[in-house]
């Protein structure tokens, strides 16, 4: 099951520099891009959370990566 947008795991993964060594490459690339974008626009956190969650809804192969958050 994919956590909803209010789950703190989304905020945590986007606002820290935690290494996602066990994640698939697509997840690593997306998280890196979202983190970079948040550095320039911190007010866009909720939008980035929705984008990240949507990625997991569309790409079931990556759902195991949520456990790394």
> What class do helices, strands and sheet pairing give?
mainly alpha
Mean pLDDT: 96
Shape: globular
Uncertain segments: none
Helix share of residues?
Answer: 55-70%
Using only C-alpha atoms, the radius of gyration works out to: 11 Å
Tell me the major beta sheet.
none
What would your notes on this structure say?
- By secondary structure, the chain is mainly α.
- The chain contains three helices and no strands.
- Helix 2 runs antiparallel to helix 3.
- The two termini are about 15 Å apart.
- The model has no long low-confidence stretch (mean pLDDT about 95).
Give a nutshell description of this structure:
The protein is an all-alpha fold and 69 residues long. It has helices at 8-15, 25-40, 45-58.
